[in-house]
Amino acid sequence: MEPDMRTLWNDRWAEEGAAVEGSEPNPEVEEAIAGLLPDASARPGGEERGNALSALRAVDLGAGLGRNTRVLARAGLQTTAVDFSPVAIAALCEHAAAEGWDDGLVGITTDLVPWMATTQERYDLVLGCYMHGIDAAITSAAGLLSPGGHLLWILHAPDSPHGPPPQIHRPSAEEVFAEASALDYLTDVRVETVVRDERFSDTILTAVRQG
Ligand SMILES: C[S@@+](CC[C@H](N)C(=O)[O-])C[C@H]1O[C@@H](n2cnc3c(N)ncnc32)[C@H](O)[C@@H]1O
């Protein structure tokens, strides 16, 4: 019998650890955090910024080892990390405690497809990074936004040499834009393709839920 995706990811995190995605965060995460702050004077960092963010909630969907979760939590956001790999969530929480960014952190080990469909939790920032193979994932993720909340969705571009195996669909920028634009409560829908280190490219969606 073929192992299921949860088992595959769990084994991968256990065997390869940070080698899977590296330990550097995506730069767009810091930009998304800055976008949450209406007062530009609070943006550069420091205590004022931390205070402004501490009332806000963020979720990292399919967080893995938490290279992006760390940025959210360190910025002062009340941060939730969801992943169906117990190995990943345990390692993420362990690193957070060891590095001191566990204050307000919630780690949830579950399949995010049913979780997104049923949870009553809502977030000011919803992040999904490299979450391929989940149908209508953008629609489900957008449903978790609080009024005025920001969505950041990052995918491997269809022609990127980095990413999931060929049998897993990689939506084009047009498909990503179409799915997000169909949600009439989303505004400022933007999709761009960025090249990283001239080696691989990502499709990046940002959008805001109407207040
Ligand atoms: C490509 S990795 C990306 C990890 C992380 N977002 C990052 O960029 O470093 C995909 C992650 O999504 C998780 N995942 C995939 N499908 C999932 C599902 N249905 N429910 C919960 N987690 C899932 C995997 O366990 C894995 O940790």
UniProtKB/TrEMBL annotation:
Parts forming coiled coils: none
Q: Which Pfam families match?
A: Methyltransf_25 (PF13649)
Q: Which InterPro entries match?
A: Methyltransf_25, SAM-dependent_MTases_sf
Q: Which Gene3D superfamilies match?
A: Vaccinia Virus protein VP39
Protein keywords: Methyltransferase, Transferase
- Which terms does the record give in the GO molecular function aspect? methyltransferase activity
Q: Where do the Methyltransferase domain residues begin and end?
A: 59-149
Q: Which CDD domains match?
A: AdoMet_MTases
Q: Which residues cross the membrane?
A: none
Q: Does the keyword Transferase apply?
A: yes
Q: Name one GO biological process term.
A: methylation
Please give the name of this protein: Class I SAM-dependent methyltransferase
Organism source for this protein? Brevibacterium gallinarum
